[in-house]
Amino acid sequence: MTLVSSIMRVRRAMPRPPTARPISLLVTGLGSTTWDAASVGDDERNFYLWGAMGAAAMIGLGLAIAQPDRRVLVVTGDGEVLMGLGSLATIGLQRSANLAIAIFDNGRYAETGMQASHTAAAVELIGVARACGFKETFDISDKLGLR
């Protein structure tokens, strides 16, 4: 699967316009995840990180801790997570039940010129998350997996 076909599959799977929104707060990482979330429909509950590479997961954790009655979803890419890899250990220890993290792993640092990221070689973010104490991890590679 190529980067473009992967992104297009995800975009087709996103509702337009959003119907019922099951999350309270959305944090998006640098790049494509921010553009895609904004294209679905801007919302005051969205927190876009236009240039804070490596910070999305920790901002999501901070929101989840500060507002435990609200669900928080972080949507980001593999390159952004790799820049803040230690955040997965902190999140694993905190175990915030109201926080979910979705990582789009294309094996590239897309925003800086499509250089190969560490996930293109050997790093498996699912394995890292499990090792950091994440209770549930899912590797979704097709539209059916999004259901």
Please, could you describe this protein's structure?
The chain has six helices and six strands; from the N terminus they run αβαβαβααβββα. The strands form two sheets. Strands 2-1-3-4 form a four-stranded parallel β-sheet, sandwiched between helices. A two-stranded antiparallel ribbon has the order 5-6. It starts with a helix and ends in a 16-residue tail after the last helix. The protein has helices spanning 3-13, 32-40, 56-66, 78-83, 86-94, 125-131, and strands at residues 25-28, 46-48, 72-77, 99-104, 108-109, 115-116. Strand 1, helix 2 (32-40) and strand 2 form a beta-alpha-beta unit. The model is unreliable at 1-18 (pLDDT under 50). The protein has one domain (3-11, 22-146): Thiamin diphosphate (ThDP)-binding fold, Pyr/PP domains (Rossmann fold), CATH 3.40.50. With 147 residues, it is α/β, with parallel strands linked by helices.
Helical fraction equals: 25-40%
Going by helix content, strand content and strand pairing, the class is alpha/beta
The CA-CA distance between the termini, in Å, is: 19 Å
Number of domains: 1
Q: What is the tally of helical segments?
A: 6
Cα-based radius of gyration, to the nearest Å: 14 Å
CATH architectural name: 3-Layer(aba) Sandwich
CATH superfamily membership, which one?
A: Thiamin diphosphate (ThDP)-binding fold, Pyr/PP domains
Biggest beta-sheet profile: 4 strands, parallel
Oligomer: single chain
What sequence of helices (H) and strands (E) makes up the elements?
A: HEHEHEHHEEEH
